[in-house]
Amino acid sequence: MKIVPASIEQAESIASLIMLAMNHECCQNFAGPSHTLEDFHRMMIALVRRDDSQYSYRNAMVALDDNTTDGHPVVAGVIVGYDGADLHRLRETFLQAAKEFLGQDFRGMDDETQAGEYYIDSLAVNESYRHQGLATLLLKKLIDQKGQRQPVGLLVDKGNPGAERLYRSLGFEYVNDATWGGHEMRHLQTAEK
Question: What is the helix (H) or strand (E) element at residue 166, kind and residue range?
């Protein structure tokens, strides 16, 4: 298993993993009653392929399993992050895509990050690769690369205590409560170096 910067060719796998991180209930909520998860997935693939999206492959690192039969490594996990100061610029692409693909207007959504932190937007491991320490490896790699200049932050669903334990074991501390996608969340952040 190796962790490397993502490539545009991995867009479909990355989009699927981001949707896993968001959870399908939340994705369907974004898609709305007249669109499907497949519609949302198509939108996410388009966003991953772009350079100017918060979900861009350029903002992602992937864990790759080289043990495949077809010669292409399997994307076993992904971590997506960006400087919180760039949220509004990067989110604009999502807002435009939601309008185009789903007919939805999310201009009033709350900010999940802000200037002063490197924000982990999404972290997911393919179900067949779980419980092997990949999430920890992805987090450590990102923290080592990005956490030197500013704290690293993320939101964790209050209904996911296992994920919160993992984050806290890596030095994340509680900052405040937040809501995202209709879910009650905790904002956690690494201590400044």
Answer: helix 161-169
Q: Sort strands 152-157 and 118-125 into parallel, antiparallel or unpaired.
A: parallel
Residues 65/159/185/96 CA torsion (nearest 10 deg): 60
| Rounded distance between C-alpha atoms, residue 103 and residue 28, angstroms | 13
Task: Calculate the CA dihedral of residues 88, 3, 49, 148 and round it to 10 degrees.
Answer: 20
52: its two tokens? 């100017």
User: Positive or negative, the Cα torsion across 191, 135, 106, 100?
Assistant: positive
- Average pLDDT score over the chain: 92
Q: What angle do CA 169, 145, 61 make, to 5 degrees?
A: 90
Q: Taking a C-beta distance cutoff of 8 angstroms, is the pair 83, 119 a contact?
A: yes
Taking the CB of residue 1, how many other CB atoms lie within 10 A of it? 16
Residue 109: band (very low, low, confident or very high) from pLDDT cuts 50, 70, 90: confident
Does pLDDT of 192 surpass 70?
Answer: no
